[in-house]
Amino acid sequence: GQSLEQPSEVTAVEGAIVQINCTYQTSGFYGLSWYQQHDGGAPTFLSYNALDGLEETGRFSSFLSRSDSYGYLLLQELQMKDSASYFCAVSPSGYSTLTFGKGTMLLVSP
Amino acid sequence: EAGVAQSPRYKIIEKRQSVAFWCNPISGHATLYWYQQILGQGPKLLIQFQNNGVVDDSQLPKDRFSAERLKGVDSTLKIQPAKLEDSAVYLCASSSEDGSAYEQYFGPGTRLTVT
């Protein structure tokens, strides 16, 4: 089976940088995905790491260390609209489905 | 490009009643997923279809939940009879055939309240 651990809540101020960590235990591992979900909204895909290292997409970056079963999502130049829940998710194989973590609620204050 | 469509957006029923949710994936997406998201938790997969065949339904409570995807496009998820613990948001997602499951497109969900 798969299990993922991520902090339940993180707070930060506008313009700051925040890192949301995710550790996982899986019977098979293909990659780590990150999704954003605003309150009452649909989850939206942010990024994906299959290989070790950093992937950058605008203000968001995601990192993976396969040897440590660890990844993180880095959000820079925080904006109020970044207040949302962030989920890490693992896929045991490329075409199998995702197992999601419980999510981290990010609260950005002025 | 239109996104994933779901209906209804909200549904309130009494326990032991039945309910059905409908999903229309993004045009051309071969893979369709139904998730259950309980408040404060991440989405939990109920069933995955590839075209009109079931790929994974290991977490679907088959004594009360059923799903079908006729003609490999639209899908319906049914609960009969509903229990209080079925109160949740039911999310439909789709992904393209030439893409991997890691990038899924979600619909707005159906918020179900069982009283």
How would you explain this protein's 3D organization?
The complex is a heterodimer of chains A (110) and B (115). Chain A has 110 residues and is mainly beta. The radius of gyration of chain A is 13 Å and the shape is globular. Chain A contains no helices and eleven strands. The model of chain A has no long low-confidence stretch (mean pLDDT 94). In chain A, strands 2, 4, 5, 9, 10 and 11 form a six-stranded mixed sheet that branches. Chain A has a five-stranded antiparallel sheet with strand order 1-3-8-7-6, with no helix packed on it. The N and C termini of chain A lie far apart (41 Å). Chain B is an all-beta fold. Chain B contains no helices and eleven strands. Chain B has strands spanning 5-7, 10-13, 19-24, 31-37, 44-50, 53-56, 65-68, 75-79, 88-95, 105-106, 110-114. In chain B, the strands form two sheets. In chain B, strands 2, 4, 5, 6, 9, 10 and 11 form a seven-stranded mixed sheet that branches. The radius of gyration of chain B is 13 Å and the shape is globular. Chains A and B meet through β5, β9 and β10 of A and β5 and β10 of B.
**Percent of sequence in beta strands of chain B:** over 45%
Helix content of chain B: under 10%
Our estimate of the beta-strand percent of chain A is over 45%
Which chain pair has the greatest contact? A-B, 23 and 23 residues
Low-confidence stretches of chain B: none
The pLDDT mean of chain B sits at 93
Please tally the β strands of chain B and state the result.
Answer: 11
Question: Shape of chain A, please?
Answer: globular
Shape of chain B: globular
Please identify the oligomeric state. Answer: heterodimer
Number of DSSP helical runs of chain A: 0
Secondary-structure map with pairings?
The complex is a heterodimer of chains A (110) and B (115).
Chain A (H helix, E strand, L loop, with lengths): L1 E4 L3 E5 L4 E9 L4 E7 L6 E6 L3 E5 L2 E6 L4 E6 L8 E8 L7 E2 L3 E6 L1
Chain B lengths: L4 E3 L2 E4 L5 E6 L6 E7 L6 E7 L2 E4 L8 E4 L6 E5 L8 E8 L9 E2 L3 E5 L1
Parallel strand pairs in B: 2-11
Antiparallel strand pairs in B: 1-3, 3-8, 4-5, 4-9, 5-6, 7-8, 9-10, 9-11
